[in-house]
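Review this:
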Amino acid sequence: MEETNYQTIKLPVAPTPTTAEKHPVVVVGAGPVGLSMAIDMALRGQPVVVLDDDNKFSTGSRAICFAKRTLDIWDRLDVGERMVDKGVSWNVGKVFFRDEEVWSFNLLPEPLHRRPAFINLQQYYCEGYLYEKAQSLGIDLRAKHKVTALENHNTHTELTVETPDGDYQITADWVIACDGARSPLRSMIGECSQGRIFQDRFLIADVRMKAHYPAERWFWFDPPFHPNQSVLLHSQPDDVWRIDFQLGWDADPVEEVKEENVRPRVQALLGKDVEFDFEWISIYTFACERMDKFRFGRLLFAGDAAHRVSPFGARGANSGIQDTDNLAWKLDLHLRGLAPESILDTYCSERRFAADENLQHSSRSTDFITPKSEISKLFRDTVLRLAKTHDFARSMVNSGRLSTPSSYDQSPLNTQDVDRFAGSVQIGGPAVDAPLRNQSEPSWWLSHLGLSFTLAMFNPSDKQLPALQKLQQEPLLNVVLIYPGQDVPTNAPTGFTVLTDHFGMWQQRYDAQSGAAYLFRPDQHLTARWRQPKADLVQAALARACGQTL
């Protein structure tokens, strides 16, 4: 079957309503963040309208590096497999200084994970797959419907929407602004992002060629073919390669994107005998900034509309997808009357913390890549020279600290440990995957963390089973039993999801002992755990995680 060319497809323009409308949730922006938010809400049974001012997908690769945490989220939204099948999977990065390799690192060094550390996938594929999933769920997607005015009230938000056939009004209980770094909605309420603007320019060249480079991230500092600057090379599907050239602040953005000026740069990197064609050329500058608040009454901001980072480290789209992962379940619980409105303030506090973490990493990466003084450059170059032979120097090499999920260890929704645990996951952190068996069939742990809260019980004793039967009746809770070894015990109870930890990796990664229990939020973050749990403790932790003690 011939693959859709998402760069040329035009989306149908939705008809213009003839009367004013009212909807519970309106998402503004149909990029990866907005579509992920809409799909998440639709899977929870919430009707969603998506408004976008365009009717086509992204041009060029744009956001291409999608991290393992994002893939885990997309697996829950039933689009992860398609992304991974098309994308180029990679775990290894290499750093070069001038003409030699000084360091190689593996972002997923331990075995037995379902997903790779990263995939590279052009943004137009990502948007196309998400759009088709949204269509299959019956989401009301409206292309060429541009929000031109906004009135924010305590109980609702009123939007004026412009279409090719005229304007109309929408009243929404909740509006999620996923309208990008220049966010018109942010301007409409008189808000702005604050932070740091970096005075540098970078050139993107997407080139199509037959090459035999491995699927790795290669980053050069001061290479002979582009002296005193940096270069980044990434593989993409369809024999497309993404190359980023640092140009400096004085570069002319009009001249630098002309093919006759870009071709010599690319040829110098690839070699004079390599043939290639251009698929996309662009130039960019960037900033590290965020809004002071992400919530204004019934209007919430996510993705680049709320916070923006430099591209080094792939923290932009990945953090935006994690925004929606954090927000969707909280908004759903509130709309169903199962959580107070104040739970949405924890979206803001948790994701502001994550944004600050990303901004710090991104700013430090940019300062290392583009030193602003001779002393800074001397420090950087010395670190790079030492990195070839000294471990301590490798920890200081910063070609972009690649995206990692944030841990909400200070969240008011958590129940703090009373017992000691080791392992890979701490309270507030995202769940770590592990291979399991489900009725002798291979399975993965994260696939059993669905849209509700999950209580995982490791090798429960017979005396714990009555309490588990009671907890299974909780409407928001799914109880999963995990047994060590190859086989389910003959006396294992019925009515539960029952899994076996045949490799022992789940037990190791969660420091599990017989009788231990772990409570996961709908966004797969661990919110409570006990060595010897009791039903009332679990119920109290569940209530707390639903914001009922805020």
